Structures are given as structure tokens and as C-alpha cells.
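Hi R.,

Here's the chain you asked about this morning:
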Amino acid sequence: MKNPPALTRLEIRYGDLDPYGHVNNAVYLEFFEKVRICYWRVLADMAGIEKLEAGDVPGARYVIAETTVLFKAPIFFEDILHGAARMRTVGNRSYTMDFELRTGETFEDGILAAEGSAAHVFFDPLESTVRPRPDWFLSTVAELEGRLEASFTPEER
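And here is the predicted structure, written out as C-alpha cells:
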């Protein structure tokens, strides 16, 4: 992932390890979650939204519909871990993000440990229904990513 709009250093806790001494597979999704929140903080700041609510931007709550993780190399307790996120697609009611985890002094020079994605659906928790994306969302994502809005159109399944 070149020049990710969201990049953060991640802490590896002793409790994240499995009996083999490397990070347990389930923890990778927690790392993706932390990187997603980093992305949302940058996005919210660009949109002029001051405070996230439980990790969500007000009026833009979402649920996760699908996740993938491709494990490339183990992550160990002593590693310096970096996570990055980028928006792949934005639909009328959903969006998909891509993630990378790298170990090393810097993200750019690090070893790719995992890559993955998550499909998110905008959700109204009071009505328990899917909702349209907020009006500001696509234009702000396009500005953050430095891409045209049309480049985020999801592919047909």
C-alpha cells in the first residue's frame, strides 16, 4: 500500500500471543479495527466533526458485513508493528476498506505481515436497518484519498 491516508503504530501486548509465541490470528482483526478508527479520526477531522461516538462518526454508524485476512508473516512480541488503511470502494449504503500490517522500523520499509479487507454497511441502530451513506461521506473520502469520487464505485458481484 503506497502512501496510505491512515497510518499508525500498533502496540503488541503479551496477551496477544498464542502458545507458539506469535500474535494470535484473531488479534489481527483487532489491529485492523484500530487502524480503521485511525482512518475515521482523520476523516471526521476533515469533515469538521469533532468527536467520535464509540468509534463512529455521528450519523454514520456502521456494522461489519465481511472481513478477510491474508497472513503473510508472523508477528512477534518484540516487533515494531505499523498498520495502514485505505478506502477501496464506496457504495450507496456501504464501503470497503483495505488494511496492511507491517513489521519494521517504518511502515514503508517493513515486512508485510498481513493484508485484509472489511466491508461495512451503514446502519441505523435505533431502527435496526441499513441506511444510506451520509451526504458528506464520498466527497470527504475522495479528498482524503486524493482520488475522484467515481473511482470508488463498487464492482458488481
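One quick note: Strands lie at 6-10, 62-71, 81-90, 94-103, 111-124, 129-130.

Cheers,
M.
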